Amino acid sequence: MGNNNTNSTRANCTDLQMPFQDSLYATTYILIFIPGLVANSAALWVLCRFISKKNKAIIFMINLSVADLAHVLSLPLRIYYYINHHWPFQRALCLLCFYLKYLNMYASIFFLTCISLQRCFFLLKPFRARNWKRRYDVGISAAIWVIVGTACLPLPILRSANLAKNTKFCFADLGLHNISMASSIGMVTAAELGGFVLPVIIITYCTWKTRKSLQEFQVPPQNTKERKKALRMVLMCAVVFIVCFTPYHLNFPFFMMVKQHVFSNCSFIKSTLCFHIISLCLANLNCCLDPVVYYFMTSEFRDQFSEHGGSVLQSCVRCKDNALEIRQREEDLQTISLECLDDSKTM
Q1: Are 243 and 289 contacting, i.e. CB atoms less than 8 angstroms apart?
Q2: Domain ranges within the chain, ordered by starting residue
Q3: Percent composition of the chain: helix, strand, coil (DSSP 3-state, to 5)
Q4: Is the model's pLDDT at 9 over the cut of 70?
Q5: Membrane-crossing residues (predicted)?
Q6: What is the pLDDT of residues 180-217, one digit of tens each?
Q7: CB–CB of 114/140 below 8 Å?
Q8: What is the CATH topology of the domain spanning 2-297?
Q9: Sign (positive or negative) of CA dihedral 64, 78, 261, 165
Q10: Which 3 state secondary structure label does DSSP give 159?
Q11: How many beta carbons lie within 10 A of that of residue 347, not counting itself?
Q12: C-alpha span between 54 and 215 (Å, rounded)
């Protein structure tokens, strides 16, 4: 009798839909899409074309921008679904959008960690920084994509339970395949330790060491300025990490336990599901916050963006002036033609 009541409570709570879910997701994606698209496109353009310094974590920033841009480009499909509550596209496209979300999350986590670690390492070991090769960053980035891409593959597969039967559902409305408790524990442990705890430790250590080096060493003013810039970049990476990814990973173990029917307290289940929605929205903000790392924390990016952005603006102004001049000349020619026509009639 008690077991039946517990199972009934679990069923009622785990099937509960949050009434604000669709509107919150749609609003969040709409607000993120245009700024994320413009900022990351501009960042990728500047980073790839105009920055050649090898000791500024540029390769990691480019990869971070690519990860953000891939997710941003999938947002219109998410917006369409949460507004219309219907998925008219192919099953594979739903799974791809779902995959890109988590690929962006964990790729961003690792690239932010690499940026912090490299800036700290080059600051503390300046002589080694001179011998650092760009191909090292390329190799590390390729390894991150392979590891993260492989590790994220089970996530869309796990959430495709109802997709084969009914293709009108997608994203948050997807079911969850039944997996063993051991598999669930293994997946949560790997995601939490590898995707959250280890990066938190590294970023915290880098922030502490960078701040400590600024306080302890007596260095020339130009070196002090460089150390302050490095500290600001590491701190910005930490802020993005804490704001965007910490809430999700704090709630993720409880969310998985709710899905595995471990809890029977309805209010706790509802709070967990509610916080899961909010934490996913916060995780999406990294697409807009990451470009802040490039612009405000990297002087080369700021200088190049201002210089070439100004050149583009000046070119547009010149084009507009030329067009106005051509139009004025055409009007003058028309006036002269009319005057000549009038003179011929008079004669």
Answers
A1: yes
A2: 2-297, 299-347
A3: 85, 0, 15
A4: no
A5: 24-47, 59-83, 103-124, 136-158, 185-208, 229-248, 268-296
A6: 788 888 888 988 999 999 999 999 998 888 888 776 65
A7: yes
A8: Rhopdopsin 7-helix transmembrane proteins (1.20.1070)
A9: negative
A10: coil
A11: 5
A12: 26
